[in-house]
Design goal:
The protein is built from 13 helices and 20 strands. It binds one RNA strand of 86 nucleotides through helix 3 and helix 4.
Length: 441
RNA sequence: GGAGCGGUGGCCGAGUGGUUGAUGGCAGCGGUCUUGAAAACCGCCGGGCGAAAGCCUCGUGAGUUCGAAUCUCACCCGCUCCGCCA
């Protein structure tokens, strides 16, 4: 129930190649085709027997109403026919059920084939589509020839008393930072500004969803079973803390049939994001680059199939605009088949330059899922009035994730004295043009 | 947490064992009429599998029966009242 049996029959080669390029097992494709054929054979057999049983049952009713004795031999014979068919049906349906389960299991393990434009390979195959802005250097040379060195964001955060990791660790655990004073206000400002730009300039509808979802929703976006290890689970109430707003917002239209004139639907939503980061122990332990709880504004699109390709470019552009207006140099990467996830068809990552740690930091990931997610969630639309429903295409992208944007700001806008200039776009929100001890943090 | 009521097609809403996949209304689509529109009238009008015949689907799952939307059991969800909390 992910790649679609119809497509499996229509273009097995493309799906097989897609699996190879994504470094998954192409043999599953052939197994699935085989199981599908068996499933259809059993289905036909079951249907024929059911037709037989239904006919016999109907005759029982007709005979009794026609005056035959309910306990007479004529009725008894009909009943026997129906019962016999019923017994066979039970056997075949049992086999059918296991076959269907097998097929579903196989389909769930076949990845969404990448878009033809996606470069084949691993990390080395990622294509830098563009770079924007001039990367600042760690060592700054002033006009008078003096030099100073940028300090990493965690030092600045501590020095300005706006990020408190140790106390976060005390009250919740490591990876749960506390933002304080101007740091807290910076969070609010970024969230508000992102949402304001998306809603007032880009036509998104703002959504404020729950920060937990139920099992069905977690399954809908593929969080379970695929990424279950990454999620915090409230077992007592069978709830999952959202790892991204994508999960609740995409599920908004789960199992719905939309009208064509509703599309495209464009949502933006802020939520805190909770991630266990299992298996990432030891990576990026300093600062706020990799944490268990962070804040993010997400864009979620529901599009007509023919529009999704252009929509990915458009949506990625909306995220880029935010970085440009913050004045943060960044690069845009077209991710290779090996780097992109199981369910994506095409994915761009946006990375900002953090000049003190001299690293590119991923702040946005924008993907087109084609109909893959929609199939799993049964999100459909009617191309024309009265036409049969078809699956929509879904897309989503960060616009943007906060911690690394904050880190980049603290490094990029740093001054020799350790204070930080507020990017012009945020000044109306922060009500100051400088973060520093003197700014009343 | 306790008590009660309820979950039927895009929506409202009939239907308590036998041509009911489901009466009726609204919405929608096509047509007649009209300069055009409205009104009126006629027709169409849930979804899935399947090449088709046909099969499945009335919250979900199991059961009773020759046969279930209709009966039984379990579960899920919603609403109302009480309690609790803000």
């Amino acid at each position: 129930m992910s790649v679609g049996v119809q497509r499996l029959r229509d273009e097995p080669d493309r799906i097989r190649q897609g699996a190879i390029d994504k470094r998954e097992d192409p043999a599953l494709v052939d197994q699935a085709i085989e199981v599908d054929a068996r499933r259809r054979r059993l289905q036909a057999e079951s249907d024929a027997l059911k037709a037989e049983r239904n006919a016999a049952s109907k005759q029982v009713g007709d005979a009794v109403r026609g005056g035959a004795a309910a306990s007479g031999p004529e009725v008894a014979a009909l009943k026997a026919r129906s019962t016999a068919a019923g017994a066979r049906i039970a056997e075949i349906d049992a086999e059918l059920a296991t076959t269907e389960q097998q097929l579903e299991d196989l389909l769930l393990r076949i990845p969404n084939p990448p878009d033809p434009e996606v470069p084949v390979g691993g990390e080395e195959a990622n294509v830098t589509v563009l770079t924007w802005g001039e990367n600042a250097s760690r060592v700054v040379t002033e006009a008078d020839g003096t030099t100073w060195e940028r300090r990493p964001h965690w030092e600045i955060g501590e020095a300005l008393d706006i990020i408190d990791n140790p106390r976060g660790a005390k009250i919740a655990g490591s990876g749960f930072p506390v933002y304080k004073g101007a740091g807290s206000r910076l969070q609010r400002s970024l969230i508000s500004w992102f949402l304001d730009v998306h809603t007032t300039e880009h036509g998104f509808t703002e959504v404020w969803p729950p920060a937990v979802v139920n099992t069905a929703s977690a399954r809908g976006t593929g969080q379970i079973p695929d990424k279950e290890d990454q999620m915090y689970i409230v077992t007592r109430d069978e709830l999952y803390l959202v790892p991204t707003a994508e999960v609740p917002v995409t599920n908004l239209h789960r199992e719905e049939i939309l009208e064509a004139d509703q599309l495209p639907i464009r949502y933006c939503a802020y939520t805190p994001c909770f991630r266990r980061e299992a298996g990432a122990a030891g990576k990026d332990t300093r600062g706020i680059l990799r944490v268990h709880q962070f804040d993010k504004v997400e864009m979620v699109l529901f599009e007509r199939p023919e529009a999704s390709e252009a929509a990915l470019e458009w949506m990625t552009g909306r995220a880029e605009i935010l970085l440009q207006r913050l004045g943060l140099p960044y690069r845009k990467l077209l991710m290779s088949t090996g780097e992109m996830g199981f369910v994506q068809r095409k994915k761009y990552d946006l990375e900002v330059w953090a000049p003190a740690v001299e690293r590119w930091l991923e702040v946005s990931s924008c993907s087109n899922f084609g109909d893959y997610q929609a199939r799993r969630m049964q999100i459909r639309y009617r191309p024309e009035k009265g036409a049969r429903p078809e699956l929509v295409h879904t897309l989503n992208g960060s616009g943007l994730a906060l911690p690394r944007v904050v880190a980049a700001i603290l490094e990029q806008y740093q001054r020799p004295d350790g204070s930080v200039t507020v990017p012009a776009a945020l000044r109306p929100y922060l009500a100051t043009d400088r973060l520093g001890p003197a700014a009343g943090a």
